[in-house]
Design goal:
By secondary structure, the protein is α+β, with helices and mostly antiparallel strands. It folds into two domains: 3-71, no CATH class; 79-190. It has four helices and ten strands, in the order αααβββαβββββββ. It has helices at 3-33, 37-45, 50-70, 130-134, and strands spanning 83-84, 101-106, 113-118, 140-144, 150-155, 161-163, 166-168, 171-179, 182-183, 187-190. The strands form three sheets. Strands 1, 3, 4, 8, 9 and 10 form a six-stranded antiparallel β-sheet that branches. Strands 2-5 form a two-stranded antiparallel ribbon. β6 (161-163) and β7 (166-168) form a beta hairpin. It is elongated and about 70 Å long.
Length: 191
């Protein structure tokens, strides 16, 4: 990441955290005293109704930005984070039978292998949950990172499936083999 993008991310994080703190203080003040400083400020400036909606929208947007940009899912879903496992299971290349799709990914420096899996390509799964979509994980494999730093995942075209009523687009999950007995957090790429 270049310096400009890094500075932009730092600025975005500062703004989102500041607005979330302001929102927390406003709600705390309302809860403790019944006084809404945002409404008071809106009335004071003569922009009642408009300014308070803008402030609330910015605070809400900041919360969402923070959630999607800075939230570590591994904190509450630890199975998605780094894990310890006998990686010798993942050092020989494996490709699913009848694969018909490829995905090339740039590997982080020092990585030699990646473990990957996708839903099976059965159309009836698009109305089912992940348990049926992944089945016995026959659409999975292990790929070796080439000398150019890229790895090619070979798999059967995955299908969509539903989670909590929402249809997820076709995607592949993978974990980098980080070293002796350690895999990275789960990564996901749409295909």
């Amino acid at each position: 990441m270049d310096k400009k993008n890094k500075n932009n991310l730092i600025t975005l994080k500062f703004i989102t955290v500041t607005l979330m703190i302001v929102g927390s203080l406003v709600w705390g003040l309302i809860a403790l005293s019944g006084f809404n400083i945002v409404n008071w400020f809106s009335n004071f400036t003569g922009l009642s109704g408009i300014l308070d909606r803008i402030i609330y929208a910015l605070v809400g947007a900041s919360g969402l930005i923070f959630l999607f940009q800075h939230y570590n899912l591994g904190e509450f879903l630890p199975f998605l984070g780094e894990t310890i496992i006998p990686v010798q299971l993942f050092t020989s290349e494996q490709v699913p039978d009848n694969w018909n799709q490829e995905l090339q990914i740039k590997a982080p420096k020092g990585i030699t292998h990646v473990v990957y899996w996708a839903s099976d390509n059965k159309e009836e799964h698009n109305t089912q949950g992940p348990e049926l979509a992944y089945g016995q994980y026959s659409n999975s494999g292990v790929a070796k990172v080439e000398n150019d730093g890229y790895v090619v995942l070979k798999f059967r075209k995955p299908t969509q499936y539903k989670v909590s009523g929402k249809v997820l687009p076709e995607h592949v999950h993978y974990r980098w083999v980080l070293g002796p007995n350690k895999l990275s957090a789960v990564q996901t790429t749409r295909v």
